[in-house]
Design goal:
about 625 residues; alpha/beta; Rossmann fold; 3 domains; 7-stranded mixed β-sheet; 5-stranded parallel β-sheet
Length: about 625
């Protein structure tokens, strides 16, 4: 964004929510247009979450207009809709740095601003976190407000209902804002989506309820007793008059549905909720992608995007990645196998399963944002003879750990975990890095894990996982396109010996093999001749690979994952069984979280790229 594009009539004057409160409602609408203009420009240059942010501009403006931040607390669910919040809370001039190394995070972070109440990045956490904040305030006699903003997609996650159940009928000054845009990333599915639609198509019932209550309260002698009788009764008369929502049954005062793009309605609803001394749920209807035609017409594609051309909406890069290749392989297998099923947790397009969902509707299951349920659901299918493949991002697999151990591995049922975005993912930062899945799965008895480097290996490993292995089998693959491939290279199976150098061995897996192959060529120019041992199956480690590595006096293991409990540590331990007496160097992600940066830059800083490998061998 150049300086000429950066001049806005009202937005340039907003350095805090206090500045916002000085504007009239009509001026706020102009401000919303200016915010949308900035959002489109920034995301087109940096990539990021576009549709969710465009859809919540008026909602965010109204929240900051009514509430007293940072004294009042807002907790954003997932946080991918918080760009407007950042703009309004003193970070406007830094928006061009969002998702870049050293810049603003794409999600709320307490260390970034006093206006960010809670760190987020994963779904369905806001109600529990915000209720904890509200409860603590109540104990301290703090009368400030606490607001959780959660989308209808996030409401498909079980944690959201645990929070609602706990917070209902609480004496705390606590408000839940349900941002209902009919979508999470892909279109919402299931009973909750149907239920919210049912509420949306009968918005007049709240008005009817208020009219009935007003009449009864103003009817002398018998009015109030009748009202109390109706509230306590389970009769059909009570249901006809009150027609409660699930939220009211849980103990919340329900307002809505409210037009999420009508500032006056939003401000009125938020002001009304401030005077209620119990849990309130405000149901807001918004349009995902609002204000940018391409995002409005295709909110799924523009949910999270890379750089794109504003005028055409076209992405700057359209290179096919592992997700697309996974989807193609699944369609190929499904065409010949009626037992093969695909499961996703609200990530149909992100995991490459769009075509599968269209071609094999009866065997495709989007369970909503419910990874725990997805794994146990898959296990139920497996015990009936089906072959379920659960496609999930590495960072979201973390939420289903108990189910993988208890429901899958201990029963030895055959399910396949297709782990997308494995390894460093880059600009989304620490909440989304896929660096824990290997260490997680490595600790579970009987689990098999594959980590291909190339597209053809991905399909081969899926074939092994689906048709040749038993129990829990994972195939993990990174985000993005295929890396460098040495001329004529072909995988030999569970592991591959590349080269015949005697000076040292590099052992690695996944896309790091591409860097190891490049490092080998550079080292040869310096008269250092090495062998690269490429692991395709990383759990269990092929014994032949261990036997080969044990013959070297120096072994260097490079791992794009957390060091504690990873494959590198296991490889080192197992080498002793094969008589290894040489030196072993492990380069992996040590005891820390990986911050946002381009994938290439992050790997460089971790010493996991070609240069890092060359330097490690040159100086040891």
């Amino acid at each position: 964004m150049d300086n000429e594009e950066h001049h806005y009539k009202f937005l340039d004057k907003i350095d805090s929510p206090d500045d916002l409160k000085k504007l009239s409602i009509d001026e706020l609408y102009v401000l919303c247009d200016e915010i949308r203009d900035m959002l489109v420009k920034v995301v087109s240059q940096n990539g990021g979450h576009l549709s969710p942010n465009l859809g919540t501009v008026e909602l965010t403006v109204a929240l900051h207009y009514v509430y007293d931040l940072p004294r009042d607390s807002i907790v954003w669910d997932v946080g991918h809709q918080s760009y407007t919040h950042k703009i309004l809370t003193g970070r406007r001039d830094k928006m061009t740095t969002i998702r870049k190394e050293g810049g603003l995070s794409g999600f709320p972070k307490r260390s970034e601003s006093k206006y960010d109440s809670f760190n987020v990045g994963h779904s369905s956490t806001s109600i529990s976190a915000a209720y904890g904040i509200a409860r603590a305030k109540h104990l301290k006699k703090d009368t400030s407000k606490t607001i959780a903003v959660i989308g209808d997609g996030a409401l498909t996650g079980g944690l959201a209902y645990e929070g609602l159940n706990n917070a209902g009928r609480s004496p705390c000054n606590f408000t839940v804002v349900l941002n209902d845009n009919k979508m999470s990333i892909s279109r919402n599915v299931g009973s909750i989506a149907w239920y919210l639609t049912h509420i949306r198509i009968r918005p007049g019932y709240i008005k009817t309820k208020k009219i009935v209550e007003k009449i009864l309260l103003h009817t002398p002698v018998i009015g109030n007793p009748i009202r109390k009788l109706l509230l306590s009764s389970k009769s059909q008369l009570r249901i006809s008059v009150y027609r409660n929502t699930i939220f009211e049954d849980l103990g919340f005062v329900y307002y809505g549905p409210v037009d999420g793009h009508d500032l006056r309605s939003l401000i009125h609803a938020f002001n009304a909720s401030k005077n209620v001394t119990q849990g309130v749920l405000i149901h807001v209807i918004t349009k995902k992608g609002k204000g940018y035609c391409y995002a409005e017409n295709d909110p799924k594609t523009y949910h999270g995007v890379g750089k794109f051309d504003i005028d055409t909406g076209e992405p700057v890069s359209s290179r096919k990645g592992y997700s697309a290749k996974f989807g193609e392989a699944m369609c190929d297998f499904a065409s010949k196998d009626e037992k093969l099923c695909a499961i996703t947790a609200a990530m149909t397009s992100g995991t490459g399963l769009t075509k599968f969902a269209e071609k094999y509707k009866e065997r495709f299951f989007d369970v909503g944002i419910a990874e725990e349920h997805a794994v146990t659901f898959a296990c139920g299918m497996a015990v009936q003879g089906m072959t379920p493949v659960f496609a999930v991002y590495s960072t979201f697999l973390q939420r289903s750990y108990d189910q993988i151990i208890h429901d899958a591995a201990q029963q030895k049922v055959h399910i396949v975990l297709a782990i997308d975005r494995a390894g460093i993912v880059g600009d989304d930062g620490e909440t989304h890095q896929g660096v824990f899945d290997v260490a997680m799965l490595n600790a579970i008895p009987g689990v098999t894990v594959y980590s291909p480097c190339y597209f053809d290996e991905l399909k081969i490993d899926l074939d092994r996982a689906i048709y040749h292995d038993s129990g829990v089998v994972a195939v993990r693959y990174p985000r993005g396109g295929e890396p460098y491939r040495p001329t004529g290279f072909k995988s030999k199976g569970l592991y591959t010996i590349y080269g015949d150098g005697k000076d040292a061995a590099i052992v690695t897996y996944g896309r790091l093999f591409a860097f190891a192959a490049q490092a080998k060529a550079i080292l040869e120019e310096k008269n250092i001749n090495i062998t690269v041992i490429k692991l395709d199956c990383i759990r269990p480690i092929p014994e032949e690979a261990l036997e080969t590595a044990a013959k070297f006096s120096k072994v260097y293991f490079f791992e794009e994952g957390i060091e504690q409990g990873g494959i590198g540590q296991t490889f080192c331990f197992r080498l002793r069984d094969f008589g290894f007496s040489g030196s072993f160097e492990l380069t992996a992600i040590k005891d820390k979280y990986v911050q946002q940066a381009a994938v290439e830059k992050a790997l460089e800083k971790l010493g996991l790229d070609c240069t890092g490998m060359v330097n490690k061998l040159m100086w040891n």
